[in-house]
Amino acid sequence: MDSRFVGIAELVEVPSVAVVVDVMRAFTVAAWAFAQGAEKIVLAESLDEALALKASHPDWAALKDGPPAPGFDLVNSPGLLRSVDLGGRTVVQKTTAGTVGALAVKEASLVLCAGFVVAEATARLLRTRKSDSVTFVVTGEDGQADEDLACAQYIARRATEAGTDAAEFLRRAAESRAAAELTEGVRQGVHPDDVALCLELDRFPFAMVATLENSLMILRPCAMPSLTDEASI
Ligand SMILES: O=C(O)[C@H](CS(=O)(=O)O)OP(=O)(O)O
Ligand SMILES: [Mg+2]
């Protein structure tokens, strides 16, 4: 499998297969939203679009990063989200990096959104699809965010090598600028457990697939079969 690792601004052409990585915190939050029962997540282009979608669908839950804000129901924090019942709900998510990265590759034939919590399921889906070439979108810090790059490199390795040890990749993420900012209170809308929750390897058994549906980018969980069902690894 040929793997490329690029920042959002470096995306010059539409990739065939894209894995958009945001460990801290958009796609850890998305995975927790599904674990809490959400049916789907609409990735919004802007705060205004998120609010407009919420206004036309009052039963949807609007989520943004940063501090709580009028019109929004939720913040971009796994620690805060894990006690919310989202059974059957649609979540509209808008964040600084993760949702922007996913929308930047919305024309790709396969778009996966990932963090460490869904790393193995994501790698397994790539193996199942026998993807020759995969573009990993490192969403944070203009493609330099080490928590995202480490996770992307781990998934790329795990997609081709059984038994890849995650420890060094998780260590890099734990020592990233984002982890420090979340721990030190630089970022807002934060729960004290957020960093630890973002570093939970394979917490969930599903990958997350984003598809264009009626011009909206919709994220849904995709349950992956166990290793014993795989022929290749
Ligand atoms: O919520 C996050 O962690 C960040 C935004 S900020 O850095 O806290 O302002 O957004 P994300 O898109 O999840 O990286
Ligand atoms: Mg991030």
Keywords:
alpha/beta; 10-stranded mixed beta sheet; 9 helices; binds ligand L3UKIRZJ
- Individual helix count: 9
How do the helices and strands follow one another from N- to C-terminus? EEHEHEEHEHEHEHHHHEE
Structural class: alpha/beta
Regions with little confidence, pLDDT below 50 for 5+ residues: none
- Strands of the widest sheet, in order across it, are 1-8-2-7-9-10-3-6-4-5
Report the helical percentage. Answer: 25-40%
Q: From the alpha carbons, calculate the radius of gyration and give it in angstroms.
A: 16 Å
**Per the principal axes of the C-alpha atoms, what is the gross shape?**
globular
Overall pLDDT metric:
95
**CA-CA gap between termini:** 14 Å
- For the secondary structure, the number of strands is 10
Question: Strand content of the residues, in percent?
Answer: 15-25%
The ligands bound in this entry are: ligand L3UKIRZJ, magnesium ion
Major beta sheet, specifics?
Answer: 10 strands, mixed
Family: Belongs to the ComB family.
Pfam families: 2-ph_phosp (PF04029)
EC number: 3.1.3.71
Organism: Streptomyces vastus
Report what the structure shows:
There is one protein chain. The protein has 233 residues and is an alpha/beta fold. It has nine helices and ten strands. The chain has helices at residues 26-35, 47-56, 78-81, 98-104, 119-129, 146-160, 167-174, 177-183, 194-198, and strands spanning 2-6, 17-21, 40-43, 61-64, 74-75, 90-94, 110-114, 133-138, 206-213, 216-223. A ten-stranded mixed beta sheet has the order 1-8-2-7-9-10-3-6-4-5, with helices on both faces. Strand 9 (206-213) and strand 10 form a beta hairpin. Helix 6 packs antiparallel against helix 7. 48% of the residues are buried. Bound molecules: ligand L3UKIRZJ and magnesium ion. The site of the ligand O=C(O)[C@H](CS(=O)(=O)O)OP(=O)(O)O has 13 residues, from loops. Keywords: Hydrolase, Magnesium.
